[in-house]
């Protein structure tokens, strides 16, 4: 079976990435506390509620990796494995999520510790619900959507964007029937990531989750609806999207953009049963950062796919949190001539990808200073910036123009920050500190003796000059090489001797800056100057 949230909690605990809080905590404070934490938080004692609250599970690169049981740069490969080799879910009888089942009047969402996130949210919001729905023609679909709690058995569902669930709900509305859904809270993050993946209609995201985790997701039957739920979830809400249409005001919602969305018009959802583990934990997926981070492997997978199709050799990709893990990517490539531009064209074809920077593989895509340095030193804007107008937009982009009657289009931009083909490679020789490969600050700061040899007492400078001359007659040498070759004589003696050779007019330099003897064939000649 695929992993469960409990397995992830144990892994986080082992890695020191989970803080358990036993002190009583006010539910109203949870979102702000998670925002201040550098680790996931498990609130054992939420005042007024029986269930503990887990939050901040995946809001960092490290914790996403931990949750997936692999390095972060392997999560995309795992997701790709899920896409290429999906494993169909298995159906079991019962399961931990069915240990307690409450129906009818016993359904009470207000008994669950569902927190409020931001100041302007419309109310407590269920954020971690892996939602399964069945359409008579298209089969089973999974996605993650927010549900604002309204009554003890009524919520809204935020399906304003044109996704698959919206299509299912529109079809049910047209037929005048409710759409049954199971809302699975507290699942393994593989199931959350797969559900967030925009699979084409009819493709099973839970089979992708199985391939992703390397073992099938376990389905089990619900009691009040003909849709399965996840047998290993912490809590399951059996519900129906009512055929109210998009008529009920809801929100506002704190979005993955880190901004407040406006008021939405959404359908209502009737909760018919609450099923849960006997010792269930409520997972309050923290908005917006957990939402943001969950998207990173998905966009990286999409980028790798299109870049592979374009024949571009990718060294590394950073789907950056600054771009909300949706809009921005830095792509390092092993470049063949023209690949910088091809990589831009391919990467910008990914839906939502708005700004892309392509760099050579000597640049660390995870180091913002390195990337900016590549832009500063490798880009000519009139040659290396590609702008495409009127592409498909992500409607939540607040910078889009307001156009009435249609969805606005967006501009996309790529920056080719790879070394240009027509510029000599020598211009990109990096500064390396002399002796960087040998000296360690720790040795100097530690208890050791420091340098092993001091400056020699007396050096015959005339003899040293003759030996340096002989060396330079053979081959030009950089200053550091001369200092190293005559290290026994000490640095001060070498610099003094080179000084005297210089004063005597005996020294020159070759074309790459090495010292040589004046008048030797190695010596560079000055560039011709205009009269
Ligand atoms: C934490 C989280 C919350 C989300 N909330 C919503 C939401 O409220 N409404 C929505 O349309 N999409 C939301 N999404 C994005 C959808 O899950 C995603 O677009 C998914 O691919 C939709 O699946 P579908 O096309 O199969 O319906 C959310 C994603 C995450 C990770």
For the structure shown, list the relevant keywords:
nine-stranded antiparallel beta sheet; 25 strands; binds flavin mononucleotide
Structure description:
The protein is an alpha+beta fold and 531 residues long. Helices cover 28% and strands 22% of the residues. The chain has 15 helices and 25 strands. The strands form six sheets. Strands 5, 6, 7, 8, 9, 10, 11, 14 and 17 form a nine-stranded antiparallel beta sheet that branches. Strand 7 and strand 8 form a beta hairpin. Helix 3 (61-68) crosses helix 4 (72-84), helix 6 packs across helix 8 and helix 13 (461-474) crosses helix 15 (491-503). The chain is elongated and about 105 Å long. 42% of the residues are buried. The chain binds flavin mononucleotide. The site of flavin mononucleotide has 18 residues, from strand 8, helix 5 and helix 8.
Assembly status: single chain
Q: Give the total of beta strands.
A: 25
pLDDT under 50 segments (min length 5)? none
**End-to-end Cα distance:** 83 Å
**Estimated structural class:** alpha+beta
Strand content: 15-25%
Bound molecules: flavin mononucleotide
- Nearest-integer average pLDDT: 94
CA-atom Rg in angstroms: 31 Å
Number of helices: 15
Percent helix, as a range, is: 25-40%
Sheet of most strands = 9 strands, antiparallel
Shape by Cα distribution: elongated
Short description:
This protein is an alpha+beta fold.
């Amino acid at each position: 079976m695929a992993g469960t949230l409990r397995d992830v909690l144990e892994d986080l605990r082992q890695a020191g990435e989970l803080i358990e809080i036993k002190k009583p905590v006010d539910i109203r404070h949870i979102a702000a506390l998670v925002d201040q934490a550098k680790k996931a938080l498990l609130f054992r004692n939420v005042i007024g509620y029986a269930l503990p609250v887990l939050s901040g599970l995946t809001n960092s690169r490290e914790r996403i990796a931990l949750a997936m049981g692999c390095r972060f740069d392997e999560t995309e490969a795992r997701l790709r494995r899920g896409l290429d080799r999906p494993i169909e879910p298995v159906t079991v009888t019962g399961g931990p999520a069915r240990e307690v089942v409450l129906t009818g009047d016993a359904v009470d969402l207000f008994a669950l510790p569902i927190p409020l996130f931001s100041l302007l949210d419309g109310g407590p919001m269920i954020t971690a619900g892996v939602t399964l729905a069945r359409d008579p023609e298209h089969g089973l679909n999974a996605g993650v959507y927010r549900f604002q709690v309204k009554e003890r058995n009524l919520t809204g569902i935020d399906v304003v964007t044109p996704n698959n669930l919206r299509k299912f709900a529109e079809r049910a509305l047209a037929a005048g029937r409710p759409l049954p859904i199971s809302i699975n809270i507290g699942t393994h993050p593989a199931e959350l990531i797969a559900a967030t993946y925009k699979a084409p209609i009819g493709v099973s995201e839970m089979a992708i989750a199985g391939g992703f985790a390397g073992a099938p997701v376990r389905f089990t039957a619900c009691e009040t609806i003909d849709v399965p739920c996840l047998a290993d979830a912490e809590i399951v809400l059996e519900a129906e999207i009512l055929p109210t249409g998009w008529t009920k005001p809801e929100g506002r919602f704190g979005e993955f953009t880190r901004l407040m969305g406006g008021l939405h018009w959404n359908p209502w959802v009737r909760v018919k049963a609450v099923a849960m583990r006997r010792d269930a934990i409520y997972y309050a997926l923290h908005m917006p950062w957990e939402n943001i981070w969950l998207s990173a492997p998905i966009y990286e997978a999409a980028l790798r796919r299109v870049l592979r199709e374009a024949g571009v050799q990718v060294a590394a990709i950073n789907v950056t949190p600054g771009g909300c893990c949706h809009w921005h990517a830095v792509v390092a490539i092993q470049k063949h001539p023209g690949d910088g531009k091809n990589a831009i064209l391919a990467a910008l074809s990914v839906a939502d990808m708005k700004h892309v920077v392509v760099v050579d593989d000597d640049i660390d895509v995870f180091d913002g200073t390195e990337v900016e340095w590549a832009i500063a030193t490798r880009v000519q804007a009139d040659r290396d910036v590609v702008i495409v107008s009127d592409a498909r937009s992500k409607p939540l982009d607040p910078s889009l123009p307001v156009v009435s009657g249609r969805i606005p289009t967006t501009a996309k931009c790529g920056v080719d920050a790879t070394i240009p083909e027509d510029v000599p490679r020598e211009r990109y020789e990096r500064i390396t500190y002399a002796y960087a490969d040998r000296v360690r600050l720790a040795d100097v700061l530690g208890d050791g003796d420091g340098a092993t040899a001091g400056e020699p007492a007396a050096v015959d400078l005339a003899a040293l000059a003759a030996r340096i001359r002989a060396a330079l007659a053979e081959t030009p040498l950089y200053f550091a090489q001369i200092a190293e070759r005559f290290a026994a004589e000490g640095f001060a003696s070498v610099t003094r001797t080179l000084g005297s050779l210089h004063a005597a007019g005996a020294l020159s330099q070759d074309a790459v800056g090495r010292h040589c003897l004046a008048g030797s064939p190695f010596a560079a000649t000055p560039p011709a100057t205009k009269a």
